[in-house]
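Sample pair:
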Amino acid sequence: MTTLIIRDFRPDDAEAVAAAHRAGREHLVQTPEMFVWLDAQQAKGQHYRTFVAELDGRVVGSVRCGVVTGTTVTGIGHANGSVLPEYRRRGAFTGLLAAAERHLAGHGVTEVHSWVDEEPGPRAFALARGFAEGRTAHFGGRDLARPLPEGPPLPAGVELRPVSDWAADPHPVFLVEADAIRDEPGEVPMDAADYEEWLAGEWHRPALDTALSIVAVVDGRPAAFTAVHTDGADRYWSAFTACRREFRGRGLAKLAKLESLRLARAAGLRHAYTSNDATNAPMLAINEWLGYERCASERKFIKRLDG
């Protein structure tokens, strides 16, 4: 008889949770240590929580959930999870999702957003549980052993510098993201970025590689940047690329991303991955120029919890 237990995450679950997260998804770059760090986050208002599913004593999957902050819209939550393929269709994710929805509803969430693999099985699962289809995002991957394109010369007054140069005062980098994220494609406007939250959740994230994250500086002022996460081995994830609106159209994001990939290649990293909303034509064009090729897609699903 199969015994299913849904419980809170513990640090010693991290290896199993990471294995379920990566199963069939080579484009996702996240280490067991990152799941421990994420679960320990206690940012104000986020109510972040990780649940795991045990089947007959083995951890086979998890769901990570919380309240969306950084926006003036209230009542929005997120719940994203995964189960090892060989343990699916045994009730594990149904139980995980129910636990996540109860937790979020208890903190005032009325609308849950979840990213789902763009495959028939996961999509059917979401639809059967009251979710509605939303927007699509595409993943791109490239082998860093392949040559990179030749970039244009730096315009006058432009420098490319590692984000580590702002270690003493990262606020100028935050201002680039706070401005750019207002235009990020999505159902929820990210119009209330908070510096302290950004410091805790992004700047101090263990996976952030401050040598490979590159800032484009115009006349001494940060104008664009690309943030990079690595796995401590050979995998590179383009976490976020931003350009202040007043500096757009100058190719600064392209220059920053190219320099970052050059440095990653020189450092011995082998596999680079990125993701973009399907409607973000400018960034998709940059990534195609950089040599990324589509390797997977996912779709946003949304569910109302108040009826």
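The mean pLDDT is 96.
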